[in-house]
Amino acid sequence: MAVQKTIVKKGKGKGKGSGGKGKVPADVNCGEVRFESAGSARKALKTLNGSLMSGSPLTLQMSPGSKDETKLLVSGLPDGVAWQDLKDHFASIGNLAFVDVLKPQKGEVRFATAALAEQAMEMTNGNDMATGGPIFVQVDPGSKDGTKLVVTDIPIGTGWQDLKDHFTNLGITVEFCDIHKGSECAAEVRYGTPALAQHAASVLNGSVLLGDTLSVRVDPGSTDGTKVLITGLSHGAAWQDVKDHFAQAGTVEFTQVMPARGKGGQGKGGKMQGMNQMMQMMQGGMGKGGKMQGMNQMMQMMQMMQMMQMMKNF
User: Fold this and answer.
1) Predicted confidence band at 153 (pLDDT cuts at 50, 70, 90)?
2) For the domain that residue 45 is a member of, what is the CATH number?
3) How many domains does the chain have?
4) What digits encode the pLDDT tens for the residues 158-192?
5) Residue 33 CB: number of other CB atoms within 10 A?
6) pTM for this one?
7) Is the predicted pLDDT of residue 46 greater than 90, yes or no?
8) Segments forming the whole domain that contains residue 65
9) Is 157 left (phi over 0), alpha (psi -120 to 50) or beta?
10) Residue 130 falls within a domain, yes or no?
11) What does the radius of gyration of the chain's CA atoms come to, in whole angstroms?
């Protein structure tokens, strides 16, 4: 069975979160491995805990948030390890459903007023959480009302409920809280002229959006030179966030956020992500030519999905 390297965003709001109390040092390289059965996960825990990967001993623990006990957290990964390396290391144990190399997480916390958000930032920035730390907290520069905080360097294994509790334990009421998984995304932005695209690449390369440092360049495959490619986005970035950020360089004609590409078949969340991409394409361009470009992009995506389905059936 093909392994799908896809981050699926867990529930928001007041529902039960997916994270647990597992404490993983922030300065240790970590990964996540899911098996198709709990038996395989227990076998891996028993036989591969302490095993060497490129000379680095691995530490395995059952993820506290794994209700079916199929998910393991792996710490002590050597520098530069890829998810495929991690998959190969665990492949002999049993069928794998998901593998990824993790980064410290990012999250957002919203409050009723800008004053409460400012107070929360002053009280929590640089603090340790129960799951590790320190975390870094800042007001989201894209928050029009100043009520949204961006939290970075959240320890791996931390759930949204842990993050919410960290703030509410200080006596501050949280209106909304979410954790964005650390998988990176890419985006594209189109401008009306090549000059604007070049200007955006020049002034916004290395800029920070939602705590992420962006890499920005003009797409070398853009026939008219108006398309800019952006990498380094966190999984929680929305097309509107990207559009607002790049409007600093000029009027944005079209915006699209694309999940990071992984290898393997279309696993859990694959079809839904495809639908979300189509919606982003339809909504992305609100300026000149935006809607038409969005429709063209949507048609291309639909054709691509049909071709993938035909190949699968064949």
Assistant:
1) confident
2) 3.30.70
3) 3
4) 888 999 999 999 898 999 998 876 556 789 999 99
5) 27
6) 0.46
7) yes
8) 30-102
9) left
10) yes
11) 21
